[in-house]
Amino acid sequence: MPDLFRHADLRATLRSITDGVASAAGFRLSAVSVFRNSDELEFLVVSGDEDAQAELGGDVTPREIVDQWLEESERWGGLCFLPHEKTLRLADHVWVGEETTVDHPHAWQPYDMLFAPLLDRDEQLQGILWVDLPLDGLRPGPDKRRSIEIYARQASEAILVAIERSRLAEQVRLAAAARRVVRDATAQLDLDRLLEATVAAAREGFGVDDARVLLDNAEEVESLDELSALARSLAHGCWARQRTLVVSPQRTAPGLLTPAEHAALLAGLEEKGDTSLLLVPLGAGTECLGRMLMFRHDRADWSDEEADAALDMGHDLGRAVLNARSFAREQHAAAYTQQLIATMAHELQNPLAAARGYASILEDVLDELGVQDADARRSLRGLERASGRLVDIVTDLLALARATEETDPTQCPPVDLVGLVGDSVEMVSVQAAPREISVTLDVPAHPLPVRGEPGDLERVASNLVGNAVKYSPDGAAVRVTLTEEPDGPAGPHVVLAVADDGIGISAADQERLFEEFFRSEAPEAVQQPGTGLGLAIVKRVVDRHRGTITVSSAPGEGSTFTVRLPRADA
Ligand code: ADP
């Protein structure tokens, strides 16, 4: 329910009306109370008497009492009068001014109540306009009643219009808020979460009691019960006409809904304890993809603004559903490709090992036979080189497949990166020694734990250090450091930096560095053996460990790769 009580403009408008009523009708006090929710009447504005203002502001009356007032009051045309004697019994909910009554047979009594019920077009009670404390101290006689009634009628209309306008403004504001939430949710590619976000937005933004989103293909048409099948076909009809449908006792939709269907839907609503329903079709282009159903327990009023905003939501959601579906398809295809690659790599291992075995047997045979033929020896070396390279590719492909697995490495126990990086550096140093490349390691004296798979993390370190050595000239220096970032925006992190003074990487190459099979075409880089898979594996491992990797480099000036991983709480 829109909260009218927050609208300062509405209060100001109503106050000017009540001020006018009080002075025109000859009363010292005039007030308006409205239903904040369906069962509580609350004062919205009080003009005139200051004591009354202080006392009545925020005063709440239950609906039963209001009904009782209406029932027991005398009708003076459009006015209701509850005399002192009757009102005494309802004293808890009546304001009593500290006025001395005048000495007159028709004197106004402290508990007298005079009010005009504010009825909307559907004859629903929206609130009450009050007057109290007559200036002449008397209960109004027939002539005065007539003039008060005229003022009250004019004021009532103005009040109802003002309330209606505020209510609409509030509804539009809420509906717009709901749309914003759906727009944000549009970025959500997970279909279930998208639908969840939409339902939450509809509940909050439209103030509905219940909301549901149903997508067409999520159910078998044949298995739908009668009402759901009707709702489905209505949604399609609505989408074709680009409209929504209100189902409530007051409204019919000729052309869209037969009287029998209307009755069936109303019965369905009643069974659920709802009064009304807004049916919103979801779609994109000419295709209707499903429907959103918004229910209200005890209100049947759906403004045109709400219907328009809801239809817009139907468009936004339709697009979001298509996005989410095509994303799911792509993911499925990508997963299939990964699986295929992993299987192929796995299957290639045995024949490759056999080929390498035969090559080495062939070498032994040539030795035994004393064959010195240069062509035969060159062919053999070529065979060994080619199969060696194939082994590297298969090994990297298997590592890549592993790094893409769905398991969450951050659930693993903590491992100490200081020890792990130390081992990797030692291993690579052995290969670097013949080229007189020094690899220095700078680490703190205490452990730096991160959660993850030790094998994968070791691959990150040895790949980066290995590359630094591979792409540096003989005699160069490679520096490996491990530090701690205790107050990063995303919590404490451990930082691994691998710096070299090697050939460097151009800005264009840096953009593609982490793609599978990417190898720089720079002449100094091409000379080095490699599969172009190393950094792709590194990147995936780092991503899976919820870390980041960055590179800073310039051709001829060396490169620094920096990996940040969340520090495990020690
Ligand atoms: P490769 O097996 O080719 O080394 P990577 O994925 O490890 O594959 O690296 C991709 C490319 O990035 C390399 O081919 C090389 O051009 C470039 N590269 C990687 N590390 C460095 C580095 N430290 N210095 C210069 N270039 C590098």
From TrEMBL:
Q: Does the keyword GTP-binding apply?
A: no
Q: Its Enzyme Commission number?
A: 2.7.13.3
Q: Name one GO cellular component term.
A: plasma membrane
Which InterPro entries does the entry link to? GAF, GAF-like_dom_sf, HATPase_C_sf, HATPase_dom, His_kinase_dom, HisK_dim/P_dom, HisK_dim/P_sf, Sensor_HK_Regulatory
Q: What class of enzyme is it?
A: transferase
Domain of life from the UniProt record = Bacteria
Subcellular location, in the record's words? Cell membrane
Q: Which PROSITE patterns match?
A: HIS_KIN (PS50109)
Query: Which Gene3D superfamilies does the protein's record reference?
Result: 1.10.287.130, 3.30.450.40, Histidine kinase-like ATPase, C-terminal domain
Return one GO MF term.
phosphorelay sensor kinase activity
The reaction(s) annotated as catalysed by this protein in its Swiss-Prot or TrEMBL entry are:
ATP + protein L-histidine = ADP + protein N-phospho-L-histidine
Q: Which Pfam families match?
A: GAF, HATPase_c, HisKA
Q: Which UniProt keywords apply?
A: Kinase, Phosphoprotein, Transferase, Two-component regulatory system
Chief site of localization: membrane
Give all residue intervals belonging to the Histidine kinase domain. Answer: 343-569
Protein name, per record: histidine kinase
